[in-house]
Structures are given as C-alpha cells and as structure tokens.
Design a protein that fits this description.
Helix content is 44%, strand content 10%. It is mainly alpha-helical. The chain folds into two domains: 44 residues, no CATH class; 44 residues, no CATH class. The chain has a two-stranded antiparallel sheet with strand order 1-2.
C-alpha cells in the first residue's frame, strides 16, 4: 500500500537530507535519480544505493544469514573507518545457534 505523501513537504525533506549529507555515500551522479525514486515510491529514506538501508529480516537472521548481513555492510563500515569485523556463526539446529562478533558471543 502506497502512503499519501505531501509532495512539497517530501521535496523539502529530501533537500534537507541532502544538505545534511544523507546522500554522501551514494555516487554523486545517482543522487537526483535516488531522490526522484523516493518521491515516486513514497519511501523517502532511499534504498541500498544510499548506503543507509540494509535489509535485516529477523527470520533470515535467525536462519543463519547473520554473516551475510555483516558482509553486505562491511564495505560501508570500512568507508567509516570501522575496523574489520570477524563474524562466525554456529548453527546447531533450527532453534540453537550462536553468533560471535570479534570474539564476543
């Protein structure tokens, strides 16, 4: 279901987001298109291309995709200066699993 959006307010919000650096991690040539897609979809905070949105479905994470989730974020984390993250995942059964990040379980 698409949410009704006041277009003038949405445009003002996107301009303010850009002014505050929201799109700084997106390729400069993509910013206009990303803002246009945001207006058309009604989803103003953008998609993966903004490097601000990462899909973290709880069911997927519980089914062993925690490492994949960290792998998807790693390039962006490196951009921010976050050191490498070491993730290990022990999946014993459908209900028993352990995630270890940088040696902390």
């Amino acid at each position: 279901m698409k949410i009704a959006v006041n277009m003038a307010q949405a445009i003002a919000l996107l301009e303010a987001l850009e002014a505050h650096g929201y799109y700084r991690y997106a390729h400069h040539s993509a910013i206009h298109r990303l803002k246009q897609e945001a207006l058309e979809s009604g989803y103003l905070l953008g998609w993966e291309e903004t490097k601000r949105v990462y899909h973290a479905d709880s069911e997927n994470l519980a089914e062993g995709y925690t490492c994949v989730f960290f792998e998807e974020m790693t390039p962006f984390l490196h951009t921010l200066g976050v050191p490498a993250v070491d993730v290990s995942y022990l999946f014993d059964s459908d209900v028993d699993h352990t995630v270890t990040v940088n040696g902390i379980t």
